[in-house]
Amino acid sequence: MSRPLAQELHRPTTQRLSRTSSGTDLLLALLFVLLGAAVAFGSAAWMVGNTANLLVGDGTWVAFNPAEALLHPGAVWPGLSSTALLVGARLFPGVLVLALLVTVGVAVIRRRSQRTSGLAGPADVRPLLKKEITAKAQSLRPSLADLKPKEVDPADRGILIGTLSRGRAEVRASWEDVIVAIMAPRSGKTSGLAIPAILSAPGPVLLTSNKAANDAFTATVDARAEVGTVWTLDPQQIAHHPRQMWWNILADARDLAGAKRLAGHFVAASVDESSGSDFWSTAAANTLGALFLAAASHRRPITDVLDWLASPADRNPVDLLSDAGHHAVAAQLQGTVSGAVETRDGIYETARQYASCLLDTEIAAWVTPTPDLPEFKPAEFARSRDTLYLLSKDGGGSASAIIAAAADAVMRAAVVVAERSGGRLDPPARCVLDEAANVCKINDLPDLYSHLGSRGVIPITILQSYRQGQKCWGEAGMDSLWSAATIKVVGSGIDDADFADKLSRIIGDHEVQTTTVSTSESGKSTSVSTRTERILPPDAIRALPKGKALLLATGMRVAMLDLKPWYKEPIAKTVGPASERATKAITARALAKSEAFGTVA
């Protein structure tokens, strides 16, 4: 017989023996289980039958004999009626044994799942589960300190992330965790993370978004209106919301640091991180910051900055800076104005492009003092249970600079309020930065993450991909944001091979045992080998189903979670109709506006 043919004949024999061996082991295990169940059933029948005989029979206690109790209960307890024998020696012991088998079976399955999956179980994420997360909430929030643990409302314990796929326990982030979520569009990031976080917030809530209808805005606006005042900053009419407030965008620009920070938001909204540090961008940002400082120092509206940008030779801002005591800034601005005409015009033109969204009077009106409308004040908001919706389109001409400036102002004001209130906000502020890389580009958000959580200001930055964050904050900035986040949630739709491989390596490896059975002329031999393989290879991460997410919490093994979208929860009975009403209201406002401008036939 040729060697290849011999090999082909040998291979099926080995596989067949392996299957037979596995089948024999399974039958043997099943036999032991049945034998153990019979012994347990007989023992339970003996115990319960004797108890029943003491209560309703002749009162004698029969010596231990599980076989007779199992096979001939009538002979063992002749004084018991047929009904008592059925219940005492059959039904009740059967229920006990069945419960025991189910309990043991579930425990075995869980242990086997833990051993083979390599992902975290309840013991690995105990600090995020009910008992410890409640204790931590009471230690961080003085308002909860005097309550008994069972009296603490679930929403006050922390932010619900999901339930463990192994164990079904609820997993919550604490009131000092800062969160980054990376989830592709339509993977449940809004329904399973953003909306539940907003609806359950015990304190003030901030949401940034580039959508309104059938999204987080419509799903939560009615519910949050019952908690506190709802403020909506909608400069580009995403929700066609009437202007019922104004915010002084220059309130924090009354010193040089605040003015430069505001200018940075306008720059970040127009250029990505890679091109934001060239000469023209830097010079335009300095000029824009000087003009903001000039306007803010004398309570001028931001629209005055547009007038100064249009006329570089105007000495008004230089004089205003000098009068306010900002002599160095005035001298620098004067140097720019007095420099070469080509350079000056280039700097001013670049600055004009950065501030171009303010040319739209409808947009500028939201950040211009309006005496007959209430003013939104970030510091007061931080002490309230109000809600701020920041809505903007992404892309060219968007008002994302205003949205980023408002979100930044709220978080920084909340930190100041916390520092003046014992160090932490109670209740904490929840800042859901949905579409953060598109409509809320805060340059130093990675740096803010390092201390926001310690002040009770909880950011939840939601991105569509890791590369989206790299484009917004640069590679180093995104790495810093990722590292600073104490809770990281990765959902389905990860198509970035590098990021998937990075996650796979972070999740780690586990050992897998392989049993090989082979035969030869000398007989059968069995060998057991161990190999190391990835717990979740990159292709498995890419194929993560919708509704599932990976949880990477600081100091804990990676866990698999099931998200809890709002529409699968009891709140859907009220949130669903409320969302439909809010969506219809947006449609009605849009149609009314179109008819008013004659754009609808």
From TrEMBL:
<feature type="transmembrane region" description="Helical">
    <location>
        <begin position="26"/>
        <end position="48"/>
    </location>
</feature>
<protein>
    <submittedName>
        <fullName>TraM recognition domain-containing protein</fullName>
    </submittedName>
</protein>
<dbReference type="Pfam" id="PF12696">
    <property type="entry name" value="TraG-D_C"/>
</dbReference>
<dbReference type="InterPro" id="IPR032689">
    <property type="entry name" value="TraG-D_C"/>
</dbReference>
<keyword id="KW-1003">Cell membrane</keyword>
<keyword id="KW-1133">Transmembrane helix</keyword>
<dbReference type="GO" id="GO:0005886">
    <property type="term" value="C:plasma membrane"/>
</dbReference>
<dbReference type="InterPro" id="IPR027417">
    <property type="entry name" value="P-loop_NTPase"/>
</dbReference>
<feature type="transmembrane region" description="Helical">
    <location>
        <begin position="91"/>
        <end position="109"/>
    </location>
</feature>
<keyword id="KW-0472">Membrane</keyword>
<feature type="domain" description="TraD/TraG TraM recognition site">
    <location>
        <begin position="428"/>
        <end position="546"/>
    </location>
</feature>
<dbReference type="InterPro" id="IPR051539">
    <property type="entry name" value="T4SS-coupling_protein"/>
</dbReference>
<keyword id="KW-0812">Transmembrane</keyword>
